[in-house]
Design goal:
single chain, alpha/beta, 60s Ribosomal Protein L30, Chain: A, 12 helices, 4-stranded mixed beta sheet, 8-stranded parallel beta sheet
């Protein structure tokens, strides 16, 4: 939800309904896993369909490198692996079966886009396995920066064919550069509510919470605006919301390296916990009676800005947990702003108070 006050409540986000296909595996319909149909009929076979093996040998699928490993695994041909919050896929069923270690991070193990990879290197906060550059990419100063930074950190830079790069990349415009790195560690909500140290001084928390945003491009753009406005942390629902995918890292342009992200089981209960800790919770919703410029002067202290999902805005329980709900006044014919555009206006309005 854009938080824009007007006729409509939708946002301009697209792609929020796209789902990942990582867990569909690579075999033909005849392939099954352990406990296959053959065992049920007494044959003891693990696969069905006579032609499955021959088809796979005739048309081998492309491979994709798993971040943190040098091994490769088959992926469905033509699929771009847009799964929300999932790392690169492995073999059949590997995308659905994530280890306990994987569940402790918020994604970000594949970083795509030139600015995002450059910022990953500059931040130096995560282990980087290697960097890929498409072989036919035109020379550019930022690519020289990436190579120099990688060389100084002793990180391998590989030039790969355009086809191999395209099979690995998972956002629409990776700009010929991607990095395989350790995932982003999940932050604790209590730590975010304690504030942060900025340039040697302690500042009160300035948090941004997203209520069911599912578009990775919108998430990345919100993270970029929030970081530029001085936000100290981000809160995302653990379920039914996008996490840090390669497309989100591209749109965030490096903001994920500087913004700690907490995942919560229920956003309403997390907001109630913030209120109890003295954090002012401000919701942005187009149906609000007050406008953004009328937020409480207390916004210069501990504050959390809550933004709703595309189309439906803030959920009822989340809205009820907000101390204030405000809207962005619109003067044109359209009824709403994209959630990332609304986040930019709201974040900088709070920054002005601080």
């Amino acid at each position: 939800m854009s938080g824009a006050k007007g006729r409509g409540r939708g946002t301009g986000g697209t792609g929020g309904s796209r789902r990942g296909t990582a867990s569909r595996g690579t075999g033909n319909r005849g392939s099954v896993g352990s406990g296959a149909r053959g065992a049920a009929t007494g044959r003891g076979r693990s696969t069905g369909g006579k032609g499955a093996g021959r088809d796979d040998r005739r048309n081998p699928p492309p491979t994709r490198v798993r971040p943190g490993s040098r091994s490769t695994a088959a992926v469905p041909s033509g699929r771009r692996g847009q799964a929300q919050g999932q790392g690169p896929v492995g073999g059949s069923g590997a995308g659905a079966r994530r280890s306990a270690k994987d569940r402790r991070n918020v994604g970000g193990d594949q970083v795509e886009g030139r600015q995002a990879v450059r910022e990953l290197l500059l931040a130096g906060r995560r282990r980087i396995q290697e960097i890929w550059i498409a072989g036919d990419t035109e020379a550019a100063p930022i690519l020289d920066d990436i190579r120099e930074l990688a060389a100084s950190a002793r990180i391998q830079v590989r030039e790969v064919s355009r086809g191999k790069f395209a099979a690995q990349a998972r956002c629409e415009a990776p700009q010929g550069v991607l990095a395989l790195a350790a995932g982003l560690d999940e932050a604790a909500l209590d730590d975010l509510m304690a504030g942060a140290s900025v340039r040697g001084r302690r500042v009160p928390p300035f948090l941004v919470a997203l209520d069911g945003v599912t578009d990775p491009g919108n998430l990345g753009a919100v993270l970029r605006s929030a970081e530029c406005a001085g936000a100290t942390g981000v809160v995302l629902p653990r379920h039914r919301a996008v996490h840090v995918t390669p497309a989100a890292t591209k749109a965030a342009a490096g903001a994920v390296e500087h913004l700690p992200i907490a995942l919560v089981g229920g956003l309403p209960s997390a907001l109630a916990q913030m209120t109890k800790a003295g954090v002012l919770v401000i919701g942005l919703d187009g149906a609000a009676d007050r406008t953004l410029d009328q937020i409480s002067p207390a916004a210069d202290g501990p504050v959390c800005l809550v933004l709703g999902a595309e189309g439906r805005g803030l959920s009822r329980l989340v809205r009820e947990r907000c101390d204030e709900v405000v809207a962005i006044p619109l003067r044109g014919n359209l009824g709403s702003l994209n959630v990332s555009a609304a986040a930019t206006l709201a974040c900088f309005e709070i920054a002005r108070h601080r």
